[in-house]
Amino acid sequence: MAKKLQYGTWPQDALSLTVAAYMNGDHGINECARMYNVPKPTILRHAKNKNVVANGDVKSFGRTTVFLAEIENELENHILKFEEMMFGLTPTDVRKLAFDIGPTSEKWTDT
């Protein structure tokens, strides 16, 4: 049976120490990964500043969101209001609604 992966089990404060040790040339990538218990791909991503999801030394998991928090809350309230009026939306309806107000719609373009 395959080993179950545990994402994000490395300590948060160890990341900055690991990246600093690797960037200064004090230790190689393998040694840094062993010493600080941080995965090699994580060290390399932060060292090359290619970590799109998390800025700085902050852990961030999962997909990034498309909408701002207030837009998501507004969409949620809109869906719940429809539900209170006994006009429930299907998942397809919700996706269409989100697509209509999303960044590809005319509201988001500079024209």
Please give a quick description of this structure.
With 111 residues, the chain is mainly α. It is built from five helices and no strands.
The general outline is: elongated
Query: What Rg, in angstroms, do the CA atoms define?
Result: 21 Å
Percent of residues in beta strands: under 5%
Helix content estimate: 40-55%
Low-confidence regions: none
Quote the distance from N terminus to C terminus. 55 Å
> Total helix count?
5
Number of strands: 0
Most strands sheet: none
- Mean of all residue-level pLDDT scores: 79
Which class of secondary structure composition applies to the elements? mainly alpha
Tell me the series of helices and strands, N- to C-terminal. Answer: HHHHH
Protein name: HTH psq-type domain-containing protein
Domain HTH psq-type: 13-50
Main location: nucleus
Subcellular location: Nucleus
Helices, strands, pairings?
Elements: H1 12-24, H2 29-36, H3 40-47, H4 69-84, H5 91-101
Q: What are the key terms here?
A:
111 residues, mainly alpha, 5 helices
